[in-house]
Each structure stands twice: as structure tokens, then as C-alpha cells.
Amino acid sequence: MITLWVAAGALSAAAAVIILLRAAGAASNAGSSDPTLEVYRRQLKELDALADSGLIDKTEHATAKVEASRRLLGAADQAFAPWTAPTAQRPWVGAIIALAGASALALYLLVGSPAFRDQPMAGRIAHWRSAPPAGLSAPEMVAVLKQVTAQRQDPEGFRYLALAEVQSENLSGAARALRRAIVLAPQRSDLWEMLGEVLVMQANGQEAGAAQNAFQEALKRDPKSMTARFHLARGKDQAGDRDGAVAILRAMQSELPPSDPRRQDLEQSIKEVLSPHLAQPSASPASGGDQMGVIRNMVAGLAEKLKANPDDPEGWVRLVRSYAVLGDTSARDAALAQARGRYRGRADIMSQLDAASKAEAMK
User: CB burial class (10 A; 0-12, 13-18, 19+) of residue 196?
Assistant: First the structure.
């Protein structure tokens, strides 16, 4: 490391000397005339050219020409003296440059880590891959999963990559990962649903055409998909088709048992679609919708899937994380207890569940 610093110091000194020599040469060749005079002369010529081509009228041309001539005469009346540093000051300039370099080196030796080895990206990723996933940040997990998916073309790996990209607030990266997963597993409706949700987030809650197409694809593969149908209803509402939106929501509601909590969320969504039109018949349809209602529906749908098919470790991790993000600690703890009881002998799943339970709640 000391060798590196000696080399860096020598290169810095050489660069400083070159800069000073070039600056001194420029000062000595500055000439005896003020370069601004040529600028004003050129400006006068350009004004005449603009007037000849009809781009400015005569009054504007005359006013601008008088102002440029005044500046030209003012610059010509001033004595021009090219700047150069006095000979007595030059040693001080060199001393200040040397002091700045020496101070930087001393500060680094005092508070830095000169003996610390370099950390190339490949080595960092190798370390992260050997570390428990629960201890990795979202960007670190993205780096690991990018390497994993490059080595092993697995749709599940790309799905995890998309989740990590979302946590890293890189929605475009999440959309790319999901599209790659869909190429590998085009029949998975959950991948189409996730892609649609990411595209909605990219559009700040608007059900854009690409998102609606993704939800349509999800519905082709799973006609009962609550998530896809809900977003398609929101898309109709935002497009002004209130009746179409309400029809989808009521059909979804009729398929749920009376005790299903999602019925209340759907009822609230129906009221939100209808209320603006009931209060103001001429107003445009609601464009935002209930974002928290969407999230609650997603989580409730996942919980229902786990009731029907509880042997889904990835689903339990997602459910625990979702409850944690929503701030529903009681539901999070209940889901976590069920998952721990089911996967007590799986250390990898247990670590993922613990990490999911510590996800930060939305504010």
C-alpha cells in the first residue's frame, strides 16, 4: 500500500508540474491585445447578418448594435494587462500544492485503512453468497441473484431477483427480471401478475396498457386470479368504464364465502368506484383507487392459497413479509408461528422467515 501511495504521489506531482508549466506558457503567449475585443467585433458582424436575413427587425438591430458598439469602445479604452503570477509568489504556489498533497496523505494514514486489502466486486459477491441471506441488504441480494441467474436460468431465481430489485427501488430492473422469468416459464400466472404490479408501480398507480396486458395474460392462465381481475377492474374504472369495473368486482365478491375478509375490501372498492359518480355525475371516474385495498387483497389472496396448499415455503416467506410491511404484527406473528412449525427442520427456510419478519413497515 505504501508503494501505491508513493507512485500516486509522484504522478500527482508530475501532473501539477505539467499544469503549472502549461499555465505559465499560456500567460507568456497571451499577447498584448484584449481577446474580448474580437468577441464584440464578431457580435457586430452577426447582428448585421441577422438583419440582412430578416431574422430581426431594424429597430431591434439598431438597439443591439448600439449596445455592442458601446461595449466594444469601453473594452478598447481599458488598458489590457495579461495576468501572470509575480515571480516572488510562485514558490508559495508550489508549497501550497505540496502541502495539500501531504495533508491528504497524513489524513488518510490517520483515519483511513492503508493496510486494508482491495475488495473487487467478484470477491464481494462471493462473500455475500456464502453469508446468510437474512444479513444481506437489498442491493447486495440483487448482485448475488444476478450472478446466480446468469449461471442458472431458473424462473424462480429471476422472480427472487425481481423482489430484490423492488426492494432496491429499481422497478425497471424488476420488470426485466420478470420478463426473463416469463420467457422461461410462460404458463406461470403469478409471474404475469407480478409483472403487472411492477408496471403499475412504474406508472405511479395508473393501470397502463402494458400492465393491463400482463394481467390479461395472467387471467388466461388462471381465470380465478383475484389480483389480475382486481387490477383489470381498476383499469376499466380509470378508463371511464364504471359499469365494467363494478361488474368485475361484484363477480369476484360473489365467488367468496361470506366469512372471507376480502368481501369487505371488495365492497369498499365498489363504493369508491361508485361514490364519485353519485356525488358528481359529470365528474371523471376515480383514477387512483385504494392502494392499501389492493395490497390487502393481494395478501389475503396469498393467505387463501396457503390454506389450500400449505406446503409452499416461498409463499409463507412472502406472507410473513407482507404482514410485516403492512404493520400487522399479530397476523405476522401468527403466520410466522405456523411456518416455523411446518419448516422447523429447514434452516434455510427458517432464516428467510426471520428476515421476512423483520421487514420495515410502510410509513
Answer: buried
H-helix or E-strand containing 274?
helix 262-279
Sign of the CA dihedral 19, 21, 23, 29?
negative
Which of 215-239 are b and which e, b meaning 16 or more Cβ less than 10 Å from the residue's Cβ?
bebbbebbeebbbbbbbbbbbbbbe
From the list 79, 101, 83, the residue with the least C-alpha distance to 17 is 101
Q: Which three cell numbers stand for residue 32?
A: 498584448
- CA dist 267 and 275 (Å) reads 12
Cβ atoms of 143 and 165 within 8 Å: the answer is no
Single pTM value for the model = 0.49
- Which is more confidently placed, 118 or 69? 69
Rounded CA-CA distance 312/342 in Å is 10
**Region of poorest pLDDT, from 182-191, 304-313, 334-343:** 304-313
Residues 280-314 have pLDDT tens digits of 433 333 333 444 555 666 678 788 888 878 888 88
Q: How far apart are CA 252 and CA 270, in angstroms?
A: 11
Distance of alpha carbon 281 from alpha carbon 269, whole angstroms: 18
- 362: which DSSP letter? P
Residue partners of 171: CB distance under 8 A and separation at least 6: 165, 198, 201, 202
d(CA 278, CA 99): 76
**Model confidence over 200-231: pLDDT tens digits?**
988 888 888 899 999 999 999 999 888 999 99
Task: Give which of 66, 59, 64, 35 is closest to 47, Cα–Cα.
Answer: 64
